[in-house]
Task: structure prediction
Amino acid sequence: MNTKGTIQFIEKPSIASTAVIAGPMEKDSVFAASFDEILLLENEKDETYEQANRRFIEKVCALAVKKGHEQMNTIDYLIGGDLINQLSPTNFAARELALPFLGVFSACASSMEAVIVGSLLLEAGNAKSVLAGASSHHPTVERQFRYPLEYGAQKPKTAQWTVTAAGFAMLQKHAKNAPIITHATIGKVVDGGQTDPLHMGAAMASAARDTIERHLVNTNSRMADYDVIMTGDLGKIGLSILKEMFSDTDSHVILQDAGAQFYGENDFFNAGASGAGCSAAVFFSHIYEQLKSGVFKRVLLVATGALLSPLTYQQGETIPCIAHAIECRMEKRG
Amino acid sequence: MDQKQFQTIVDKQTPKAPLFINMLKAFFVGGIICTIGQFVSFFYIRFFDFTERTAANPTVATMVFFAMILTGTGLYKKISQFGGAGSAVPVTGFGNAVISAAIEHKSEGYVLGIGGNIFKLAGSVIVFGVLSAFFVALIKTILVKVGVLSW
Amino acid sequence: MISSLITAFIVGGLICVIGQVLMDAFKLTPAHTLSTLVVSGSILDGFGLYEPLIDFAGAGATIPITSFGNSLTHGALAEAEKHGLIGVLTGMFEVTSSGISAAILFGVIGAFIFQKRKTTY
Result:
C-alpha cells in the first residue's frame, strides 16, 4: 500500500488573492455573496457556449491579478484546467492571456492540481507570481458528457449539477496576510467499482478517503487538528458515504463538502453541485475569506474528480477517481 | 476496507428511486399525451377524410410538431423531469430527442453539426426498430412458407 | 368519443408505466428502454396482437414508441405476404415515414428558429 505523495512546502507559497465568477444559476448559491461576479447570461448572443467559457476564464484571471495589485505581464505562469475535451476553453483563454502555460486535467480535482503545480513552481524558486485555478460551464459539460440541454431525461436523486463558475488564485511566496499552503497530497487513481455516471459521489468517495488518510498519516495529524476538511464535489450522498468510511468520530463534524452545501436545500439540484468550478469557486471565495479573517486557522481542501469519459461509460468500464489536497494555514498577522 | 464493505456503505446511503410515485407520474403524463393524440386523430378523421387506421400518420407528425415547440421553448425537459417515461415513451419523446440534438449542434453548422449529430440519442430506436422488424418478418415469412403458420 | 379518450389515456399510460419500470427498477438508460419497447411492439405485431390493440385504444397505442416497431413490422409482413421474402426488405419503410420524417424536418426547423436558451429551473 503506497502511502507516499505528500509534499511539504518550505518557501511558504501563499494565496495572495483570488477571484471567482459564477453563472446565472449560481446566484442562488449559499456562497453567492462571496463571489466577485455573477453573470446574467451563460453566453452572449452570438457566442457559442465554449466561447463564453473561455471568455470568463480570461476575465477571472484578470480579476485575480487586479485584486492582488499586480499586472498580468508580471505573472510568471498560468496553470489551469477544465472539463472539456483537450482543455479547449482554458487553452484558448491562455492564448489571450499570453502567459507561460500548463494545462492540467483531473476532472473536478483540477483546481487543486493547478494549485499544487503552481506551488511547486514557486517552491523551485523560478517564479514570483503564479495564477492557478479551474472552471466549468454547465451547458458545455452537459453537451459533452450527458445529453443535449433540451433533452428530457429524468434525473435521479443522486445526480449532481455542474456549476458554471471559474475560480483562480494568484499565488506568491511569503505574501503578507495571506493563507499559506504548507502541504499538499497528490491523489492516487482509486476505483471504487462504481459504474453509474449519475452517482459520482459514490465513485469519488474512495479516492477522497485515500488522499485524506495519506495526508493525515504523512503530516502526523488527526482530523480534530483541522477547522474543516472540505472535499470538492462529493455531493450530499457522497459526503455521507465518506463519513461512514472513517472510524474517526470527528469525521462527522470536520468533514464537509463544497458541492453538498453549494445550492443549500434546493431539491432541484438533487445531490448538489459538481464540476471543476465547484471546488474552485468555494475554496477561493468562502474558505479563503474565512482563512483571511482568522475564523479558520488550518484547513485541508480536497478536490475530487471522476476520471470517466463518455466512451469508457459506453464500454462498460467502472469510474476511477482521484482527489488532490492542499493544506492551508493562516499564521498570526505581523 | 474491501470492495464488499464499501458497496454496503454505498447501498445504505444511496436513496432508492421512488418507483411507485414515478410510475404514477409516468402513467399520468403518458396518458395525457396519448389523449391529446386521440383528439388530434379525431380532428383529422372529422375534417380531413382520414380513417381510424390512416389517421395515425398525420397524428404522429402533429405530435412531433408539438414536441418541437415544447422542446425549443424549454418546456419539454420540465415536463420530463416530472413525467419520466411518460414523456420519453410517446413519439413526442422521440421528437424531443431528435430536435434537442439538432438545436444543440447548430453551433457546428448544419452539415457536420446537425446532420452528423441529429440521431445521437434517437438512432438506437430506429436501428432496433428496423432490425426487429426484419427478423420478426423474416421468421414469420419462413414459418408461413414452411406451413407452420398462416397469414 | 369519451370512451375512446379514456381507453387512449389508460393504455398509453400503461405502456409508459412499463417504460418507467424498465428505467427505475431495471436501471436501463432511456435509449435502452425505448429500444426494448420498439422491439416489443415489433414482436407483438409478429403475433398479430398490436393491430387489435390499436383498434381498441387508438392513440393510446399509436402514440407510444412501440407503435414504431409495429409499423415497421406490419409493413414488412404486408409486403412479404404479397411478394415473398424480398417483401421483408421492401415493406419496412413504406408505412413509418411520418414519425422519422417529421422528427428530422421539425428538428432542423427547430434548430433554425430556436436560439440557445439560458439555463433556468
